[in-house]
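Study this protein:
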Amino acid sequence: MADAAPRLQGLFTQLLGAPLPVRIRAWDGSQAGPPGAPTLVVRNRRALRRLLWKPGELGLARAWVAGDLDIEGDLYATLDLLAGLVWERGEDARTLAQALRDPEVRSAVRGLVKLAGSPLPPAPPPEEARSPRRHLHTKRSDRRAISHHYDVGNDFYEIVLGPSMVYSCAYWPTPDSTLEQAQHDKLELVCRKLGLKPGQRLLDVGCGWGSMALHAAREHGVAVVGVTLSQEQAAYARKRVADEGLTDKVEIRVQDYRDVRDGPYDAISSIGMAEHVGAERYLDYATDLHALLVPGGRLLNHQIARRPQRDETTYSVDAFIDSYVFPGGELQPVGSTVTQLERAGFEVRDVESIREHYALTLRRWVTRLETDWARAARLTSPGRARVWRLYMAASAVAFERNRIGVNQVLAVRTPESGTSGLPLRAREWTESERS
C-alpha cells in the first residue's frame, strides 16, 4: 500500500508542532495534505536521510540541490508558507537537544528513521562549498569565496542578469519597466549621488562585470578603476571596456580592495560588495575606503541589511547561503553599517532603503533562469541552477516580507572646514530625475 505521504505528513506535524501548510507527494505516488496547496515532492528516501543527518535548513538545502526534493506550484508562495516552520527555526545543538526531550518528537524521529531506510548519510552535493564555520576573511579565504560564487561561467550569468550584467538591486521607475531600464536607472542614481564630473577618478570596489565602471566613464566622463577578485569577471569586463573603446578611461584589476594604493580618488562606489567583508573586518573596510578618498570625496555604499536582533550575539550566518551561495557572507543591520562608517571618519549624509526594488529584481532574475532552464543547467550543473533558483526566490520573499532590506548609504570624507560639498537639498538627484 502506498502510504509514505500521509505518514510523512503525520511525522512532520509531530516534529514541527504544527501541520505542514503544503501537500506532500512521495516517491511511492501517495499524496497527503491540504487540497489545492502547493506540493512538496519527496522524490526518494534519500531526502529523509539528508534531513536526519543534517536537521533543519542545511539538510533541506542539500535535498533540494541534489534533486531529492522539488516544489510544484507557486514557488514563492511555498517558500513563504514554509519559512516560519522550517527555514527560520534554527538548528543549533541546544535547540535539537531540547526538542528531543519531547517524547512525541523522539517518536517522530524514530518513524522517519524507519521510513528513510539505509542509515548511511548521503554525500553532500558537489556544489556545496567546503568552508570553515568561522570565517576570518583573510585575503586568501575571500578570494576563494568570491571564486565559488562568481567563477561559474559568464554565459550562465548572462542568462540570469540579462544584457546589463548588473548583479545587484535595480532601481525601478515602475514595476512594469524592463530589467535593463531599471539597472540603467540604478547605475545613473549612484553616479548622481556621487556627483561625478568629467576628469574625476572613481574607484569601483567589487566591480563585477564592469557595468558601473562603463556607465560612469561613458555617461559622466570619469576615469575609473574597477577591482574584483574574480578572474572570470575581470576578463569579461576588460573585453566590454575594449569593445566600447574606453580603455583610456577604465582599468579593471584583479585586486583586493585592501591592496589599492594609488589613491586619492574623488569618489568610491561599493555596490553589493560589503556583504562579503564580515562584521569583524567592517571597520577596517570603512577605514581603508576613507583613506583612499580626497577630502570632500564621496562613498556610495549599496548593501543588503538584516533586521537587528535583541541579542546580537545569537546571530549566525544562514546555513544554505553560507554553504551554497556566499561562503563567508554576513549581513548587518543598517544602523551598524552607519555606525562603522562614522567611526571610520565618514559623515553619513543620506540613507535610502530600496527594499521593494530588490524583490522586483530577484523575481525578474528567477523568470529569466526558469525560461532558459535547460541551457543554464547545461552551462553549470543542474544542482548549481537549483541553488540559484532557490536562493533568488527565497530572497525575493524575504525582501517582500521585510525580513531583509537593502540600503544605499551616501557618506562623505568631510574636511575639517566642514564643507561637505553636498547641495542644501540632500535629494537633489531625485529632483533632477523628475525634471
